Amino acid sequence: MLTVKTPEEVFEIIKTQFEPAADRTETVPWTQAAGRVLAEEIRAREYVPAFDRSTVDGFAVHAKDTFGCSDSIPAILQNTQEILMGQAAGFALKEGCCAPIPTGGELPEGADAVQMIEYTEDYGDGTTGILKPAAPGHNVILKGDDVYPGKPVLPSGRRLTPQDIGALAAMGVVDVPVVRRLKAGILSTGDELVPPQQAPGPGQIRDVNSSLLAALMARLGASPAVYGIIPDQEELLGRKIEEAVRECDLVLLSGGSSVGVKDAACRVIEARGEILFHGIAMKPGKPTLFGKIGGRPVIGLPGHPVAAFFITHIFVRRLLAQLGGYALRDIPVMARLSESVEANHGRAQYNGVFLEQTDNGITARPIRGKSGLITTLAGSDGYFCIPRDCEGLPAGAEVAVTLYSADG
Ligand code: AMP
Ligand code: MG
User: Fold this and answer.
1) Ligand 1 pocket, 382 CB below 6 A?
2) I need a labelling partner for 302 at 20 to 30 A (CA). Which of 164, 260, 329, 350 fits?
3) Average pLDDT estimate for 366-385
């Protein structure tokens, strides 16, 4: 019998039944950290910048020397030595003086502002006219304006972006603590399956799920281990699952997760561990089961590739976050349906959509066609959910679309 859970109950089971992996972190060089999940908060250890810097090409001044000046009454200041890029200023600016400074140059001691070269005049006699007053701090980034020692910069659980890598470089954080890539074992079961590179014989089909799930695991930051196609034979399946459980952090098994005579997934897992539930009240993907063998999650996915994909994106993605000890950051895109969508089967219904930017905002065009068609999923952008008590949505209804490209 299926012990059916709602999607919300499954989220809860994932949180309560699985612990973050004990050895979940590793250190990688910052150059390899993009796309990885931070395992600890990153705080600055230094001042950035480490000295007061000019943000323009111009003249470093004492601000008060420029007060009241104008085009008609310039402040006439004595030129001093030039400040060079990448070198300490190396002198103190006296009152009544100004020093040529490049963008990014260090302010000399005493200077508290920079006036842009456009608002100055070179008199050629060792003096410069300042034509516009500069308030203290004008065109200057002060030491520590960006970060100072102890300032929290990147939160634990963040998936590092290129701009984060830039921040790490700026702070000199070159050893980055990240969540280890979890190893996900992938097994496809079914007597009808042949590998994609082989021409199917009568009654045979190509194995879609091994490739689809491996790509999805990699996309979500896990490391896929493909165990290949297993015929519908319990003995064989049992041995393969045991091998995968020994070698992986989690195991995804597709096909045979229903309750038919040939559907061995449930029996094979139960014989070696426990079944947490069998069946989710949703469409697609009802015949899904979650179990544990030796404390490791083993997920029985429906063989139908579209269902296997949705279940993995909705639930296994959360499981990866739970095992990795981080939170998902899903910010949905709000869009309006281009056409109505029916739903009246008493189960939550997940619908794939194509998004389009139109003059009237963002439109979500639902995927149409029979539910067994795998290529309708290709090219789509994300999905929305119609709750189980809802009898469908009219054209123009606003839906929250979870993007497939959402942070793992
Ligand atoms: P099952 O869950 O084993 O009952 O399979 C449900 C449907 O999905 C059947 O039509 C299977 O042929 C198909 N199917 C199962 N596994 C795969 C796979 N790896 N790739 C493509 N289709 C599959
Ligand atoms: Mg099957």
Assistant:
1) no
2) 329
3) 85
